[in-house]
């Protein structure tokens, strides 16, 4: 049984993009929180274009995309073979 690379790539890209959008949205949302002290968590996300926000998004994209893509590529077809 050979892996279906096209299906794995498409599913991996879609799942990775969804995860990246969620993580980046969370980073942007967290950057808008008011800072109550000098060591508030919100300072780690400000400004929203900070490199660490993009790096967290990239890590989420790659990790989720690889897992879902691998699982989709090696999933057997469920069509009946008549």
Spell out the key features of this protein.
0% strand; 2 helices; 82 residues
Would you mind describing this structure in some detail?
This protein is mainly α and 82 residues long. The chain has one domain (5-73). 61% of the residues lie in helices and 0% in strands. The chain is built from 2 helices and no strands. It has helices spanning 5-31, 51-73. Helix 1 runs antiparallel to helix 2. The longest helix has 27 residues, at 5-31. The chain is rod-shaped. The model has no long low-confidence stretch (mean pLDDT 90).
Q: What is the share of helical residues?
A: 55-70%
- Count of domains: 1
Mean pLDDT: 90
Per DSSP, the total helix count is 2
Q: How many strand units?
A: 0
Q: What best-fitting shape do the alpha-carbon axes yield?
A: rod-shaped
The rounded Rg comes to 18 Å
């Amino acid at each position: 049984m050979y892996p279906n690379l096209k299906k794995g790539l498409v599913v991996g890209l879609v799942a990775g993009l969804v995860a990246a959008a969620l993580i980046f949205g969370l980073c942007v949302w967290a950057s808008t929180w008011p800072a109550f002290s000098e060591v508030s968590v919100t300072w780690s996300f400000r400004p929203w274009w900070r490199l660490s926000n993009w790096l967290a998004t990239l890590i989420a994209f790659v990790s989720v995309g690889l897992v879902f893509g691998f699982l989709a590529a090696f999933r057997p077809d469920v069509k009946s073979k008549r």
